[in-house]
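Instructor's aside before we start: the two examples that follow are unrelated to each other. I chose them only because their records fit on one page, so don't look for a connection. First example below.
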Amino acid sequence: MGRFRDALAAPGLSAIAEVKRRSPSAGDLRPGADPAAIAAAYERAGAAAVSILVDEARFGGSWDHLRAARATTTLPLLAKGFFASEDDLRTAREAGADAVLLLLRDLDDATAARLMALGAELGLDAFVEAHDAGELARALALGADPIGINARDLSTFEIDRARQLELVAQAPEDRIVVAESGISSRAQGAAAELARADAILVGSALMRAPDPAAKLAELISRPLVKICGLTREEDVACAAEAGADLAGFILAETPRRAPAVLPVPETMLSVAVFVGEAEETGADLVQLYPKVDGHRARDAALLREGEEVARVVDLPWLGEDEEHWEKAAEATGRVVLAGGLGPENVLAAIEAVRPWCVDAARSLEAAPGIKDHDKVRAFLEAARS
């Protein structure tokens, strides 16, 4: 395996940041984009690799774009085009690519295998893309690694994110899996991460942004922020506008009990919070606290499709935030830090624990179950500072 695959295997969610001037589905994105400058900016913003469109007819790209990017970044470069011949791969290697895209939609298994073998000889990783269950099965049988799961149907250009996440979750853990297309928010990236994607490939959302590198940094920034104890649509709207990534709806007996899991925008994931036993609600995630001696346990599991994907470390021990944070910092895996967090202490908590997500509820209230919108905005501002 080469350095493109290895770069995506780093802990946490990696990002392949794409340079493309236009798209068949969206038209012109950034017609005058400078691949060299943008690739260098992506590296500074934390990209694991850079994807360069080299197809002129559909994407406004060229091999010269890849050569220009190679001159300004040390990151692995993915040459992205509609490749079907050995000459394509040799050109990619000569231009400075570390990996090439192979679309199973356009290639039979024999051709894909031949190109993968040549790529290995040339020192190129084959980034094999699938967009349905049949193509994923083919990719696995071919031994592809890494594998891209594209949410966009290349015939209709429609995005089916739910199907993508199902396929990502089905891929074996020993393969590097990349979620492609349609990701424009931290929450959408987190959804792919929790489904077991190792990386996301983002293009249009970056190229449309006023500052592509700043948008990239936003998408991969951690911790995420969860606002819990939401009971009203206007409070959900405030949390979303302030930049929250997860919306928590408590469905246990409490003054903060929500009437239901309320609708959330695409920029947020919904979380149904239960004590003892969970019920089907249609929420993206479930936060489940065990019952201990008839009371809610301290910590909870964050579940996706019934499987634990993070630990919620809750309730300050002995009322001392610092001691709570020290214990939380010892936890392994993804940590959702909760318990006594507010605008005044969330930054210190983040620096002490480095959690995957921070969670606040009571400290942001005007009354039980009613959010103080100024406090919600202040919490988000502090957590992002």
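Example two begins here.
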Amino acid sequence: MTTVSRRAFFGLTAASAALAANARVSATDSRAQTLSSLTGGAQPITAQEHAERIAKLQSLMQQRKIAALLVEAGSSLEYFTGIRWRRSERTTAALIPAESGVVVVTPFFEEPSIRELLKISADVRTWNEDESPFDLIAKALHDRPVTAGPLAVEDTTRFFIIDRVTKLSGAGREIVSGEDLVNACRMVKSSAELALMQAANNVTLAALKQVHGRIEVGMSSPDIMKMMVTATEALGGKHEFSLVLLNEASAYPHGTEKPQTVRKGSVVLVDTSCSVHGYQSDFSRTWVFGEPSSRQREVWDTVKRGQEIALETAKIGVPVGAVDRAVRAYYEGKGWSKDYGLPGTSHRTGHGIGMDVHEPPNLMRADMTPLEAGMCFSDEPGIYIPGEFGIRMEEGVS
């Protein structure tokens, strides 16, 4: 396994309290205007690759004697069909049979938009406001050439869709989870997917570098987040999220609503993501504003070594849970809490990443998925000390 990126910041910046926070951020916005896009050469997934994904899925369904897979709007619908669509009370979904063509069901007034996004050959069937999309899905299932076998459902599909389709499909139709089918397609990335993820990584790392050097005393978490958004967009990425945790708030992996501002000796933790043509980055950086204390430096060094242990353990064929166990053994040997206790590492060592910022497999000790070439995951074994601070660095690894 090789890292997509293994850079870390432990920034020591000079404090300046001469300007108000809004003036500082405005100045940073003007600097960001000088940044140029890093994604001009990024190529979206081709129609041919989408067709190959459908072919692989259908082959898996035939092997497992599955009649079809039902996928509603979301990243898996985009993965297989190219349709990037929001979820709402109006159902848009695809039925992908084990044999023959794909059927897409969508509201009548959305058909032009759906056809514009569609990257595969498909039969688009529409429903009006006083009609049922579930009738169309059930009918599509019955009129496909292969009607025997269970219907698999993508695992994030909402219950009301499953419930209505189940009732209309008849008592003889078994409904099963499609999680294994989808994971078998999505967990291992193609060269085109890896290229888009690398582009997203490049943007996020450049944005972090831009922001890192411009933080000043008195800035708040929203001030820093605004700088991240501005830099990310100027560099050609679609900003997905930025979590900025200062001081004691950094001891909460996903933050607190208690306001925090930058001061001398502040721990600054930034967790941020962008996407390029639907594929995401996910990086965290933690540094100290000013001179770090010996305790801050010790914890930072421990977490950095934890990241390295994760990389050293991650070999082809090794269960992902073994990566988590190796890091925990090192931390526990240095006196941090056992299992997922605090102070220590209260969350998994990492997670899969791709079109979603969190995907299977999960680098936690109970996950026995063997690592394969082309899998992508985060490496982020943070340490959190309630009432003091937390340290998390996060890399993208493939």
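Confidence is low (pLDDT under 50) at residues 1-23.
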